[in-house]
Amino acid sequence: MKKSIKNLARPGRAAAPPPPGLLAAALGALGDGVLLAKARWTPKGLTVVFANDAFCAMTGRALAALRGRPHGELHADSGHFEALRRWLRQPAPGLALSGEGYLTRQDGVQLYATWTFSAVAGTGGQITHVAITYRDMTAKRRVQEEVVHAQRIEAVGRVAGGVAHDFNNLLSVINGYCEILGSKPAMRRLAAREIGEIHRAGRTAAGLVRQLLAFSRRQALHPQVVSLNQLVRDNAPILAKLLRPGKTLALDLRAEPDRAKVDPTQIQQVLLNLILNARDALAPGGEAAIRTSYREIAVGRNRRLTDLPPGRYVVLAVSDNGAGMDESAQAHLFEPFFTTKEQGKGTGLGLALVYGVVQQSGGHIFVESAPAAGTTFEIYLPAVMDPAPRGDPLPAELPATRGHETVLLVEEDQVVRKMVAGILTADGYQVLDAALPAEALRLARRAGKPIELLIAPLQSPGDDSEKLAHALHAANSRLRILAAGNHEPPLLDWLVPTAVGGLTKPFALSDLLRAVRSLLDGQGVPAVPPHFHPPE
After folding, report:
1. Which of 12, 166, 255, 524 has the highest CB neighbour count under 10 A?
2. Position 217 pLDDT exceeds 60
3. Whole-number Å distance between alpha carbons of 180 and 199
4. Could you tell me the residue ranges of all domains in the chain?
């Protein structure tokens, strides 16, 4: 029986090409976008003759709208043209040209893609067409940008953490002496409002320091239910002053409900930074506006907010009719140290902090701007239904605990040490104070009586303050320890829980006195609520 060799490939000859229908099916099955263009240059690129389904879906364009158009119309910029023209002078099969950049969809939205140009030879071996493959890298690039942005935010946090210690000491002095003055009846009669304003500003500043520390240590913040409408009204006089002279502030507060669970001092800082940006963008006679509204985002609705999870939101918007920004500036807007202001007139930290605050509050921020058309920042915060409390505008009167025990105070900052020692002494305690643990130990040994309470900035297990605590505990097993510093106290598992407590700077003197008394009475230290009083 003869074997048929009709369909067998002969040695030295190429295999038969697949049917044209199979090639078209293969192109249609590819996940990457594919264009086929003529290998002849036009002022706007290569003329498209074919596009697969993946490319049509990627760009939102139908094949009929692509065929006969130059490929360069799809690219957001023509930066790759020169390299492509050089490559076209001597194209060769197997020698591809790669690149990456932005493409523009039919709806105007840009996507980031990588592309590869490959030469296609005709039957005579001459290069007649170019095959271009596109891969959508938008999601991957967004993740990369978020990682870079997070790293830059972390850099801001390291800088902020380096100065927060000194700020906390200064604020402890300012707030502490306000409490001392506010507790004197004569001073309350003469200057209650002035003392209240200083104390309020000091506590607001303390909140800002906590905000900076949140970037460096990711420490727990102090959220509470806040009426955004009321918060804006309370801060409006100060914000309006920032715009003067010649620029005005308008309010349009329509959010109902208007409550969100946030750290109010952080939202104050957000308003402050956004109004300062508006001020710098406004011409004389210009206007900044703060608006609130309530919105519900349903699944699949509002395409502009595709990254915003469905839910109920209170929207806080700050807008201006000033100079506006181009797309280049908006692309870097929230990056630390980026600023469009003249050298020496802006740190580039303001909007980075705004972004961080909104993110940490569980919110989202969007910006709309164009040159000469002004700027609007919209902040979406999850809405809550709980009522919002109001605070007392004056510092609370200092409690009279009538102590008598011996207290050893370790505080490196001389002004803070003097203030704390003074208030404890005035309340009846016998106070020994020192700047460093070694000096404190010498004082304790010379005192001739046991130390009943140690107040020191314990920061990490085994540090000098904890060694001092061990030495004092060996001499008096009833020792109580109050860790008062810039960090959460370490776990002292060699003490019973009621014998140790912590206060984080800047703390209120009233909280200090209560913590001291509670520890000495064997009750531990109760949780200290955050202090917030908006300016009037």
Report:
1. 255
2. no
3. 11
4. 27-136, 226-396, 406-520
